[in-house]
Amino acid sequence: MTQRPRTVGELKATGYRPRSIKQEIRQNLRAKLEAGQRLFPGVLGYERTVIPGIVNALLAGHDFILLGLRGQAKTRLLRSLVNLLDDVVPVLAGTELNDDPLAPISTQGEHLLEKFGDEAAVEWLPRQSRYNEKLATPDVSIADLLGDIDPIKAATRKLTFADPEVIHFGIVPRTNRGIFAINELPDLAPRIQVGLFNILEERDLQIRGFPVRIPLDLLMVFSANPEDYTNRGSIITPLKDRISSQILTHYPPETSIAADITRQEAWTERGDDVVIPEEVRLLVEEIAFVARESDLVDQASGVSARVSISAMELLASNLERRALSTGECPVYPRLCDLHMLLPAITGKVEMVYEGEQQGAEVVARKLVGEAVQRVFDRRFPEIGKGIGSGGEEDVGPYAEIVAWFADGNSVTLDDEQPVAEYLAELRRVPGLWELASEHGGTTTPLQALHAEMILEGLHQHLKLARQDLDSQVSYKEMVKFHLLRPHGGPHGGG
């Protein structure tokens, strides 16, 4: 490996020429596009929407903002921009603003060149050190971002406050020749947003009104939630006007894409004990999709992808717990396991007033039930109106099942049952196992899952009653169950 230049003179001898951060990103982006390389590894579902918008903004040399609800990979996209930087860049050693050795912008850098000339030392800054971000909060000050006059430095060196050397620089100028990101921009106080005007428009730093003008070289990027719902603040219009591109993010359009994202992010590898089929992964994603359409959930707040990620990790943990307690290996998901995912839902889904009145756990159970119903309706035959009426008009594939429950029988399932007991309970229902096998149950675990889904589907279509007690679920005949328990049991149902 060739040794990198260590002095300004050696750097000049290589033919190095200064270029701006936006020129650097543009050239590297063009090279990646021509080579067909993936620009944002780990970001899925944006190939035809968000990523082309970011590429166009970078090719145009724009500062930009990503606007979208929480959990839409905005921060990940911004942090991935570092991959478009050079591996390393030369900086003048001893400077606070990462001065280019051939084009310093700080008084400190200019003095070093005047004093040492071509012998001035050069250091090499890695790309990871050229990205900084700040989470906008109401207490962020101009001094935090841009800097302030340091009276101690002025007194020690006997300099006036107008001298650039008395400035204590903030995080933005210290990111010179790099990428600076501000997350949740509306949370930044309006007067602080005003302080960004000059940087965005003139690439100029001014502090305390003194005639200190430092031409910064930056790519400024931002993220924000839609300001039409947030009560915390908004982006002031002049600042929006100076951000050249606004790019809208979104949630995954399909459960298959969402499942790929969750598979990538969630920790579900618990050894050979735990097996989670793809069908169950899609079912877990369906819960988030249902929540994003529910009238009980605040859609302006959004339902983060973290709901599915946390839920999948809890599912894997519940299976791991069952494997350890029963000694069985491997273990597969059951539909009754989904009730153990409620902690991943209740803490991440904001509800409207009606949802708050019902309670977080009740709403979460409804979301799980609706998700199962959606999958049931796509996979299994339609439930006819005659099913469960108890008369001769009972026809169709579910008639035998409903009739068995109508005779006073019930089924109780839970997530701690040994597999033999669990399967035996399902097989008690006449016709249930055969119907589950007929519609995609190619293995015993899938047959059992589909059998549970049929029972839950009949409950969601008001043909069976269900009583929930923690993770234990009992299915019973509808009318008799309600005569016994008018309120549907301790946790609802019916």
Can you put this structure into words, describing what you see?
With 494 residues, the chain is α/β, with parallel strands linked by helices. It folds into three domains: 19-86 and 130-248, P-loop containing nucleotide triphosphate hydrolases (Rossmann fold); 251-379, Helicase, Ruva Protein, domain 3 (Orthogonal Bundle); 383-494, no CATH class. The chain is built from 21 helices and 14 strands. The protein has a five-stranded parallel beta sheet with strand order 4-7-10-1-11, with helices on one face. A three-stranded antiparallel beta sheet has the order 12-14-13. A hairpin with an 8-residue loop joins strand 8 and strand 9 (214-215). The longest helix is centred in the middle third of the chain and has 21 residues, at 306-326.
Look at the structure and give the mean pLDDT: 88
- CATH-scheme architecture of the largest domain: 3-Layer(aba) Sandwich
Helix content: 40-55%
CATH superfamily of the largest domain: P-loop containing nucleotide triphosphate hydrolases
Number of strands: 14
User: Could you name the CATH topology of the largest domain?
Assistant: Rossmann fold
The largest sheet is:
5 strands, parallel
Characterize the quaternary organization of these chains: single chain
Q: What is the molecular shape?
A: elongated
Alpha-carbon Rg, integer: 31 Å
Q: Which blocks of ≥5 consecutive residues have pLDDT under 50? A: 388-392, 480-494
Q: Could you tell me the strand content as a percent range?
A: 5-15%
Given the helix and strand composition, which structural class is it?
alpha/beta
Strand order of the largest sheet: 4-7-10-1-11
> End-to-end distance, in Å?
73 Å
Please, how many domains? 3
Query: Helical segment tally?
Result: 21
* CATH uppermost class of the largest domain: Alpha Beta
